Fold this sequence. Notes:
Elements: H1 2-29, E1 30-43, E2 48-59, E3 64-70, E4 75-81, E5 84-86, E6 88-91, E7 94-103, E8 109-117, E9 126-130, E10 133-137, E11 163-172, E12 176-179, E13 182-189, E14 193-204, E15 211-214, E16 217-224, E17 229-236, H2 241-247, H3 251-262, E18 270-275, E19 286-289, H4 300-308, E20 316-318, H5 325-342, H6 345-366, H7 384-401, H8 403-415, E21 422-424, H9 426-437, H10 442-448, E22 454-466, E23 470-482, E24 491-498, E25 504-511, E26 515-523, E27 533-536, E28 546-553, E29 557-561, E30 566-573, E31 576-584, E32 598-613, E33 616-625, E34 640-647, E35 659-663, E36 667-672, E37 678-686, H11 687-690, H12 694-697, E38 702-705, E39 712-729, E40 734-748, E41 757-765, E42 768-777
Helix pairs in contact: 3-4, 4-5, 5-6, 5-7, 6-7, 7-8, 8-9
Amino acid sequence: MRRVVILMIYILLTSVLQAQYINEYIGDTIDAVSYRIHLDNIDVNSHIIEGFTEIDITPKVNQISYIPLELQQLTVDSVLVNEEQTTFSHENMRLEINLITPLDIIDTATVTVYYNGQPFHEDWGGFHYSGDYAFNLGVGFVSIPHNLGKTWFPCVDNFTDRATYNLFVNAETGLTVTGGGILVDTIPQSNNHTLWHWQIPHEIPTYLASVTLGDYVEYTDEHVGIERTIPISIFVRPNDLDDVAGSFANLHEVISFLESHFGPYPFEKVGYTGTAIGAMEHASNIAYPSFAIDGGLTYEYLYTHELSHMWFGNKVTCARAEEMWLNESWATFIQVYYLLGLYGYDDFITEMTSMHKDVLQNAHIEDGGYWALNNIPQSVTYGMTAYDKGATVVNTLRNYLGDSLFIETMTAFLSCDTIAYRSVSTEIMRDFITEYTGIDMTPFFDAWVMTPGTPHFSIDSTIITENQDSYTINVYLKQKYKGVDNLADANILEITFIDEDFRFITDTVHFSGKTGHSVLSFSKDVMPKSPVVSAMDIYYKTMDATTDNYHYFDSPDEYSFPDTYFKVFIDELSDSCFIRTTHNWVAPDSLKTPIEGLTLSPYRYWKIENVARGDIQARGSFFYSTMSHLDDGLITSPNDSAVILYREDAAHEWQEPEQSRLGIWSTGNILVEDLQPGEYTMAVWDKTIVSTNNVNNNKEQVKIYPNPTTGVVNFEFNASNIYNVYVYDNAGRLLDKQTIKDNKGSYNLSGLNVNTGTFIIMISCNGTTVASSKIIMKSR
Length: 780
């Protein structure tokens, strides 16, 4: 069986490599200058197409004896070269057209291919029929190469060969045909048919050409752009027409945002056509799923994503599928970035940080490993890395340059004569930004684009010196990396200092390598009191391997910090406080002195920062789970006993604070009773090891009864000591605390003014949890 699997893998890889070779070889041999696609029949009943395509080509090498093209799953009837019939061979996807006379680079030729058949489609890409509708989607997620122009016309099917298009479709009168570009004419034909002629004057790759046929109605509008008035044409099924205005209510604002940030709209019209599945960024005729035209704004991000491709992907296209981030990372970034212009900073940053958390937690799982944005395998071209991770990298680039320089630079990039309406590489983008800004972008691209994983930055320590009129702060920085062993250089990071009056002062540090040191200073005029917290990147400028949030409190409260798997319970607060929680998606520093049977998380740790006026008493709840890709590399069986370790800072050793666990061995929350600023990490004791030494032997044996109870709960210990009894409700909220100074005692749940319910009893001794139990209280 193993040999069969290996053989199947070999065949698959061989076919993929052959397809890539054919695709590249054709593109190296000829250049398609223009296409005239004639579809005489699109039969929605038999699912066939019939027609012919005329292609104007020029050779890229001298003395070619045949013209290579691609055409998938359709039957070629005949071929002409310069109106003379010739011979051909058509095997798999490769169509070779023999030439009577060889062609040189200076020559041109018109190839006409007549063909018919049922077009290819996969689950997503290809040429589809859906009821009485037909449409194409220009790329496939499964097909390699991904380009699927060849499923409905013969072509040079790659990301670099660009041509103009004329589309002629003969359809039954009453049906509508849509395509990219402008509608040149509709010409009545015999037999109650109409010939539709669409034209795309801008050169585009094959995968951006489009055709749809069906019973459509058109919603029209115009947008006054920064250079011209832009037609808007949205074709939908008749019963969707009333929902168009609501679904596209902010389309004008979206277009204005895109033009103001990336330059004038680059095509003839803003166009969408409702399709059974999609969305696909065909040039000026976006295939848009009909379910998204529902009268509401739920899918506004989706039409924004596809429209942004007119700039990133269509006007400027990735040169290879392995550089798909040049298309999809930018469009995914823009589907979040536009929120900043239309809805404000809070909506933008909430969506961006949520996406960032999902990337850090899940991208390497969904995509089967950590991948660089550049040279990504074609098996994950359309994965989470190229879309979501890339979007967070683009946002980091935006902040690295600064918003205004970022906008100016990318507008110049898209309008550059040697870049616009062409295919580019990652290196071309990197070098353009370097030349335009005067900032060497090689270190940034090396760390964020060319390398798998994500950098991680933290403050190791700070030393604050108070002068007569100012403060001098020595900041010591540390770098780790999530995913690979790599260190980023030329890092630019913000550090915010906060004093006890909640004043914020932010400055920038630069460093390279594993550690860094910066000296910062500021006047007492701007911060009269010495800072008590030094916070890294509090405004989310750098999408490194951290997720964080902060919150202000002015009374006892409980609060779950988004994207951090941490919840705080403030039980006592005499004034007000500021708490920031950072979830670090890298391994914590190791134990200074290893302890047999104790293993720290290889994956994550928390940092809690606190500015408090007056007195505060708080508890912290840390979520653990072998699911959700959080602790599956740490907690592997019931023999692993999950605990939280704490240290004040890097100068201190990890220790086990007083805590209780609410949950089972694999999933739950660990509640730290006295939450202090510092670092916390998940760890496990291996019971098969620690059961043989003094760690567990010193723990008290406790008897808790009765359960269920009508009110009173009794405790018996094997020795007299001082025991703290904590009573929580089922949600983890502390209800009461009691001290027992003996070898037995009791607690009456009736004193909580409840008759029934489920409660958690946790008992600690000398800072160590000795027992916890879920107690059910029944009515008398």
